Amino acid sequence: MKNLLGFALTSALLFSGFAASAQTPSRQTQWWKLNHGSISVGGTGQFTSELTSDPQTVPTIYNNSDVAAFGQQQKTTWSAGFLTSLQLAPRSWAGFQINYGFSHYQERYAYNLSNVAGSQYYAVPTDWHEATAGYLIHPKHIPFQPYVVIGGGAIGFRPDGNAFNHLDVTYGQPQWRGAGLLEAGFDLPTNNKHIGFRISGRSLYYRAPNFGNSTISTHSWRVTTEPAVSAYYKF
Questions:
Q1: In Å, how far from its chain's centre is CA 169?
Q2: Average pLDDT of the chain?
Q3: How many domains does the chain have?
Q4: Which has fewest Cβ within 10 Å: 3, 38, 114, 232?
Q5: End-to-end CA distance of the chain, in Å?
Q6: What does the alpha-carbon distance between residue 80 and residue 39 come to, in Å, rounded to a whole number?
């Protein structure tokens, strides 16, 4: 799954070099002559599944004693979120898309400690910030106007500052993870040529956050699936 991070970083680099792809200034001017664009705002649902996990035994402190943590597990709650996207298409069928998404949910951890009976459990309220971009393919000759986006970017995880207070070693700083993005959907035009609706399915691939705390780290990769419904304005 480490290839996913490479995929995300490569996509981001390719996206940043989008304007440089033309070989001459005149061809670059032609490429950046906007054919059409749109901005959309909508809601998402978030459902996260684990792809791989590699929990490890690590030293930690419990009640001022040295112990070992092992058998870490990590899950999330499902959540509703917000998504806004900007699509810019220098060609009628191709362009790029920039996204920002927000959600609030809980990261839930479980782990065992040596010489301590039972498992340890706790939940971390977390803010999710998505910043991604990707290449857009958007055929215009089909009535429902399907599209596909392939790209990447990053996801920022900001934990509640009080979530780690009961641990002897207190970490919990905000953390960013590289992410790969796959998205497919279709636009539903209305009688108004500028306004319509967008239905899409999105998948984000990334490494699970541990907020700098090795005691809870599962070293896992996962995918968050997002069904999304938005309203768009075309220009």
A1: 28
A2: 86
A3: 1
A4: 3
A5: 39
A6: 20
Task: State how far the Cα of 112 lies from the Cα of 72, in Å rounded to an integer.
Answer: 7
Question: How confident is residue 210, by pLDDT bands cut at 50, 70 and 90?
Answer: very high
> What pLDDT score was predicted for residue 232?
98
Give residue-wise pLDDT tens across range 176-187: 999 999 999 999
- pTM, entire model: 0.83
In this predicted structure, the answer to whether residue 169 has a pLDDT above a threshold of 60 is: no
**CA dist list (Å): 51 to 5, 58, 103, 110, 218:** 14, 22, 21, 18, 12
Render the burial of 165-192: b for 16+ CB within 10 Å, e for the rest. eebeeeebeebebbbbbbbebebeeeee
Does residue 98 contact residue 85 with C-beta atoms inside 8 Å? yes
Please give the Cα distance from 77 to 210 (Å, whole number). Answer: 16
- Please, which residues have CB within 8 angstroms of residue 209's CB and are 6 or more apart in sequence? 107, 126, 157, 175, 177
Q: Which two tokens stand for residue 57?
A: 């035994």
Residue 202 belongs to domain with CATH number: 2.40.160.20
Q: 130 pLDDT exceeds 80? A: yes
Domain that holds residue 102: 2-234
